C-alpha cells in the first residue's frame, strides 16, 4: 500500500511538472511572438525618409531593393541617369549602367519636406534615404549648360516657399510667366483654372496661410505641365532638360496642425495623387524618355563642420577666396594634367639632348648638303 501510494504521488508530481513546463514553453513562445510583432511594427513605423523613382525609361535601369542611398549622393544619381560622369564612383547597386547612346531627355527631381514617405499608386523603385543633408543640383545644371550651351536647354530650379527661382536657357522665355512669389501664386489661385476648383480640399481651408502655401505648391506643379503642353517643342530638342523643385507645404502643415490632424492627412493624400499625375504628364510630354524622382524627408540634417585654427597662422593667405589660409583644392584632373606635363617635359628634354649631341658630332663636309654643294661649286670654279 505504501509503495503504491508513493508511486501514485510521484506520478502526480511528474504530471504537474510536465504541465508546468508545457505552459511555460507556450508562454515563452507567445512572448517571443508578441515581441517580434512589436519589433516589426516599430520598424515599419520608423521606416525613415525615402528616394522614390516614379517614372523612368527602359534604358535607365533601377533595380528594386532596399539599398540605402545617402542624401549627399542624390546629385550623383541624377547626373548618372542623364549620362554624365561624376568625380567619384558611386558604389550603389540601385542604378545599373545603361546604353551609351541612349539618354533621357529630362530629369525631374521633386523634394518634399515634412513627410518620410508618400503612398504612390505606382512606382518604378523606392529606396531608403540615409543622412538627409541639404543638397542642390547646381553641379548637374552647370554640366548641362556647359555641354549643351549651343542648344539652350531648359534648367529650372524652384522653391516656392522660399521664393527662390533659378532659370537658364529656354526656361527664361517659357517660364517667365510662372508665378514665383507667394503673392503671385495666391493671385493665381483666385483665377480661372486653378487647382482649387478641381481638388477635394476636405479639411483644408482657403483662409489659412499654411493651407494656401501647400495649395500654391500644387498650383506650381500644375502650371509647369500646362506651360510645357503649350511649348511641346522644348521636349523634342536635342539638349536634355533639368527640373528641381522643393516643396515644404507639408512641413508647415505638420508644424501647425500636427501629423495626426485631418488637414495633414488630406494634404498628404492630395500631394501623392498630384505628384503621381505630374510624373505621368512629364513622362508623356518627353516621349517616355524622362526620369522623375521624388525625395521625401521629414527634416534636413545640417552637415557637421569642424573649424580649426593653426597657431602658425600667417597673415599672408595663399588662397584669397578662403579666410582660413587654406590651399587651393585639386580637382579630379590634377593627376592627368601632372603626368601629361611631366612626361612631355622629359620627352622634350631628351629630344633637345639628342639633337644637340648629333649636331656636335656632325661632319660639315660630309653630313651637311649645304657644305657639300658649296665644296663642289668651289672645285668647279
TrEMBL record:
Residues 48-298 form the Renin receptor N-terminal domain. Residues 306-381 form the Renin receptor-like C-terminal transmembrane spanning segment domain. The keyword Transmembrane helix applies. Keywords: Cell membrane, Cleavage on pair of basic residues, Endoplasmic reticulum, Membrane, Receptor, Signal, Transmembrane, Transmembrane helix. Multifunctional protein which functions as a renin, prorenin cellular receptor and is involved in the assembly of the lysosomal proton-transporting V-type ATPase (V-ATPase) and the acidification of the endo-lysosomal system. May mediate renin-dependent cellular responses by activating ERK1 and ERK2. By increasing the catalytic efficiency of renin in AGT/angiotensinogen conversion to angiotensin I, may also play a role in the renin-angiotensin system (RAS). The lineage of its organism: Eukaryota, Metazoa, Chordata, Craniata, Vertebrata. It is a single-pass type I membrane protein. InterPro entries: Renin_r_C, Renin_rcpt, RENR_N. It holds the Pfam family RENR_N. It comes from Poecilia reticulata (Guppy). Interacts with renin. Accessory component of the multisubunit proton-transporting vacuolar (V)-ATPase protein pump. Interacts (via N-terminus) with ATP6AP1 (via N-terminus). Interacts with ATP6V0D1; ATP6V0D1 is a V-ATPase complex subunit and the interaction promotes V-ATPase complex assembly. Interacts with TMEM9; TMEM9 is a V-ATPase assembly regulator and the interaction induces the interaction with ATP6V0D1. Interacts with VMA21 (via N-terminus); VMA21 is a V-ATPase accessory component. This is Renin receptor. Its main location: membrane. The chain crosses the membrane at residues 334-360. GO terms for cellular component: autophagosome membrane; clathrin-coated vesicle membrane; dendritic spine membrane; endoplasmic reticulum membrane; external side of plasma membrane; lysosomal membrane; synaptic vesicle membrane. GO terms for biological process: apical protein localization; intrahepatic bile duct development; positive regulation of Wnt signaling pathway. GO terms for molecular function: signaling receptor activity. It is found in: Cell projection, Dendritic spine membrane; Cytoplasmic vesicle, Autophagosome membrane; Cytoplasmic vesicle, Clathrin-coated vesicle membrane; Cytoplasmic vesicle, Secretory vesicle, Synaptic vesicle membrane.
Amino acid at each position: 500500500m505504501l509503495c503504491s501510494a508513493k508511486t501514485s504521488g510521484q506520478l502526480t508530481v511528474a504530471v504537474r511538472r510536465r504541465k508546468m513546463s508545457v505552459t511555460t514553453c507556450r508562454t515563452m513562445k507567445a512572448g517571443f511572438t508578441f515581441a517580434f510583432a512589436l519589433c516589426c511594427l516599430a520598424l515599419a513605423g520608423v521606416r525613415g525618409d525615402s528616394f522614390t523613382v516614379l517614372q523612368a525609361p527602359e534604358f535607365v535601369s533601377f533595380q528594386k531593393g532596399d539599398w540605402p542611398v545617402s542624401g549627399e549622393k542624390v546629385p550623383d544619381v541624377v547626373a548618372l541617369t542623364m549620362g554624365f560622369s561624376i568625380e567619384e564612383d558611386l558604389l550603389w547597386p540601385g542604378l545599373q549602367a545603361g546604353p551609351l547612346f541612349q539618354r533621357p531627355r529630362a530629369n525631374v527631381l521633386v523634394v518634399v519636406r515634412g513627410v518620410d514617405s508618400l503612398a504612390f499608386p505606382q512606382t518604378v523603385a523606392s529606396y531608403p534615404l540615409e543622412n538627409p543633408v541639404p543638397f542642390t543640383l547646381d553641379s548637374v545644371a552647370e554640366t548641362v549648360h556647359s555641354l549643351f550651351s549651343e542648344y539652350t536647354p531648359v534648367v529650372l530650379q524652384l522653391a516656392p516657399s522660399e521664393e527662390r527661382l533659378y532659370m537658364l536657357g529656354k526656361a527664361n522665355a517659357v517660364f517667365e510667366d510662372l508665378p514665383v512669389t507667394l503673392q503671385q501664386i495666391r493671385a493665381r489661385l483666385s483665377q480661372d483654372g486653378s487647382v482649387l476648383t478641381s481638388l477635394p480640399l476636405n479639411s483644408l481651408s482657403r483662409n489659412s496661410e499654411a493651407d494656401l502655401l501647400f495649395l500654391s505648391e500644387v498650383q506650381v506643379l500644375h502650371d509647369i505641365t500646362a506651360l510645357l503642353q503649350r511649348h511641346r517643342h522644348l521636349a523634342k530638342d536635342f539638349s536634355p532638360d533639368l527640373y528641381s523643385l522643393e516643396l515644404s507645404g507639408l512641413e508647415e502643415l505638420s508644424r501647425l496642425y500636427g501629423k495626426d490632424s485631418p488637414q495633414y492627412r488630406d494634404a498628404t493624400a492630395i500631394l501623392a495623387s498630384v505628384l503621381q499625375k505630374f510624373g505621368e504628364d512629364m513622362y508623356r510630354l518627353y516621349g517616355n524618355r524622362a526620369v522623375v524622382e521624388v525625395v521625401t524627408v521629414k527634416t534636413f540634417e545640417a552637415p557637421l563642420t569642424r573649424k580649426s585654427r593653426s597657431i602658425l597662422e600667417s597673415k599672408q593667405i595663399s588662397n584669397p577666396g578662403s579666410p582660413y589660409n587654406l590651399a587651393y583644392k585639386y580637382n579630379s584632373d590634377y593627376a592627368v594634367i601632372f603626368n601629361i606635363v611631366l612626361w612631355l617635359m622629359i620627352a622634350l628634354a631628351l629630344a633637345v639632348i639628342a639633337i644637340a649631341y648629333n649636331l656636335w658630332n656632325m661632319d660639315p663636309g660630309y653630313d651637311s648638303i649645304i657644305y657639300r654643294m658649296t665644296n663642289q661649286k668651289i672645285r668647279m670654279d
